[in-house]
Amino acid sequence: MNYILRKIPHIAFVVVVLILTSSSVFAQNVAKDQNDGNILRIKLGAGATYYYGAYDQSFDNFNNDRLNYQVNLSLGLALSKSSHPTILGLFGNMGFKNSKTVNFIFQDQDYTLTGANANQMQPNINNSYQIEAGLRLANVLRISTGYGRQYFEERTLINNKDGSVKTLKSLDYYSTTAGLQIGTGVVGFFIDANFNYGLDFNQTTITPSAGLQLQF
Questions:
Q1: Which domain holds residue 204?
Q2: Is the entire prediction scored with pTM above 0.85?
Q3: Is residue 190 within 8 Å of 180, Cβ to Cβ?
Q4: Is the Cβ–Cβ distance between 14 and 55 less than 8 Å?
Q5: What is the pLDDT of residues 106-159, one digit of tens each?
Q6: Contact assessment for residue 204 and residue 54, using Cβ atoms and an 8 Å cutoff
Q7: Is the dihedral of CA 177, 97, 130, 113 positive or negative?
Q8: Is residue 75 within 8 Å of 90, Cβ to Cβ?
Q9: Can you point out the beta strands (E) in 79-164?
């Protein structure tokens, strides 16, 4: 419980910034919602992600080794027939991380590689999956939480936090996302901030993302 409480200020800050930004989006968005009156909302998108890493580290410069990409799918139910309804939804995400990003994850989570294959490079594409449930308030501001898993080539890892040694092919974590949906036509733009924490993760990490999505 104390671990979660320590993370609340950081998550709250991002949410407040998103709320303030969304107010300007409402002011500029005069187009009628393409899906006005439809109960089921489907969004399919793709975009770039940037693995920022541990939430408490400083940002020095842009690093191409942290740049990756993702595809996402959301299914939602509109809770009203207004032009900007609140959406109750499920949010799925499949990410593709390069080998250097996976090594950054090991470092941030305080894992040390050991064993015969400790120095072998990871594949250049390592899949991750996340499923979250939550709301898209006024079809603009997303707040959701759920579960995620990062896959990689099998490695023996020493958890420097508790000294345990495990041979793993993946790391599990809780996933929480705050984001903005811009545009109500067939093509929209999204900006998200994804927080990963708990389970196999010793540190909270942040991955911002942005991209385009089709809305049905």
A1: 2-29+36-215
A2: no
A3: yes
A4: no
A5: 999 999 999 888 888 899 999 999 999 999 999 999 999 999 999 999 999 999
A6: yes
A7: negative
A8: yes
A9: 87-97, 111-114, 126-137, 141-159
